[in-house]
């Protein structure tokens, strides 16, 4: 690849890739927001509406938790992990030195976005396109991942830092009970966000030559 980069036709493309590059994992977060809650809600709503899904199945389901409601999900996680310590599944030392500080750091942030997939909504299309039936669940997960990435990038564009967590299935039952989540919604990921109070870790890249090929140029 040459050292001179080609110019994009649309300046918005440059802006898009600058946002992509700026999206990083921030663990040190404060329970503050640089924008109104309405702006955060709009980010999540726009993502739910406009991220693509196979056959337009629209299987992603999203719950936005702010302030005290956000803190509840991490209280749930802490309580569950304490139960695992009491049952002997997790050592007290690991919980005290690693697990609890990490969960407490998530709790100290401003909000959490819960990402779910409604696999049951795929029943009709699986029947209609039976030859692809085993593909629709992975397709739904891919669409959900795109929602996670878009929300994450948009939040960072508005001045937040964020990190993506996966505490399923440990917290699923209590999350469903606490917020009245339908049984068909399956929790996939939790995006924690707040105002960053630390820098992200340095990011290393494997050689692009090992990861990309082009033919016909």
From TrEMBL:
Domain Nitroreductase: 20-194
Subcellular location: Cytoplasm; Nucleus
Keyword field: Cytoplasm, Nucleus, Oxidoreductase
UniProt keyword Iron-sulfur, yes or no: no
Gene Ontology biological process terms, A to Z: cellular response to oxidative stress
UniProt GO MF annotations: oxidoreductase activity
Matches recorded under InterPro entries: Frm2/Hbn1 (IPR033877), Nitroreductase (IPR029479), Nitroreductase-like (IPR000415)
A GO cellular component entry from the record: nucleus
UniProt family annotation: Belongs to the nitroreductase family.
Name of the featured protein: Nitroreductase domain-containing protein
Organism ancestry: Eukaryota, Fungi, Dikarya, Ascomycota, Pezizomycotina
């Amino acid at each position: 690849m040459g050292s001179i980069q080609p110019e994009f036709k649309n300046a918005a493309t440059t802006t898009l890739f600058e946002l992509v590059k700026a999206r990083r994992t921030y663990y040190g977060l404060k329970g503050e927001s640089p924008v109104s809650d309405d702006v955060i809600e709009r980010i999540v709503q726009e993502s739910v509406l406009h991220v693509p899904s196979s056959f337009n199945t629209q299987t992603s389901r999203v719950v936005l938790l702010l302030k005290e409601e956000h803190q509840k999900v991490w209280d749930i996680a802490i309580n569950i992990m304490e139960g695992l310590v009491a049952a002997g599944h997790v050592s007290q030392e690991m919980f005290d030195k690693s697990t609890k500080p990490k969960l407490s750091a998530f709790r100290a942030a401003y909000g959490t976005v819960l990402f779910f997939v409604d696999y049951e909504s795929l029943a009709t299309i699986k029947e209609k396109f039976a030859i692809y039936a085993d593909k629709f669940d992975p397709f739904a997960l891919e669409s959900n991942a795109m929602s996670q990435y878009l929300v994450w990038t948009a939040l960072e564009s508005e001045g937040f830092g964020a990190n993506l967590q996966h505490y399923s299935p440990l917290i699923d039952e209590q999350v469903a009970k606490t917020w009245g989540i339908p049984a068909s919604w399956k929790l996939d990921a939790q995006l924690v966000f707040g105002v960053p109070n630390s820098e992200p870790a340095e990011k290393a890249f494997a050689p692009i030559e090992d990861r990309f090929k082009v033919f016909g140029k």
